Amino acid sequence: MKSLLIALGLLTGGIAVADQPHPKQIRVSLQFIEVPHSAFTEMLAGPEINGEAIHEKALALSKQDQAKIMETCMVICRSGEKATLETIREEIYPTAYEPPGLPGSFSSTPARTQLDTPMNPAFRAPTAFSTRNTGLTFEVGTLLNSSGMIELRLVPEIVTRLRLETWMEHVDQWGDGSMRMPIFEALRCNTAITVKPGKFELVSALTPKVNAPVPEVSRKILVFVRADVLPTP
Length: 233
Description:
By secondary structure, the protein is an alpha+beta fold. It contains three helices and eleven strands, in the order H-E-H-H-E-E-E-E-E-E-E-E-E-E. It is flat and about 70 Å long.
């Protein structure tokens, strides 16, 4: 009898859990579209402020080869939770080198030998390294509120290695021992917005850099987001 009551209790509890509503699943799509600076200025100067209309204009420019779709990504998460998407390459580079030294021994009475023979410079051997993730990283938090709108917390980032910068030049009989450090470009925004399901919204406009320490004034990278509520499985 006791076993029967326990079985009935477990069955009742299972039915109660099954009847509870599950969190809605939200599909978040993100697009990076590069457009001419002048075209984006005209978009903002016009009377249309709807993000969906601006997205259609950017897509129309891409079909005319006047704009470029740089990246499109998508991730699904449940309402009230967070998700992270990564498409990256780990760039490992040295950050510290041993200081260069001279051959021989040094004390209160220096005793040095073969001073005319150069030694392989010690700064060729790195002593510390760091890692930078290049590519796309997208963090998002979603919440479907009581009015049917979707609240988003977005942190998209695109990191690219532009070039190697020479910090110290050194060439000897062992070859090129120059110290070079990578220069990275990061396109990032961190924001929170409320969107209508199924509609694109303009999140941000980023200014890229050419392979030089100056902004690229002729282009803008527009970031669009769209969130859709998926049917409950």
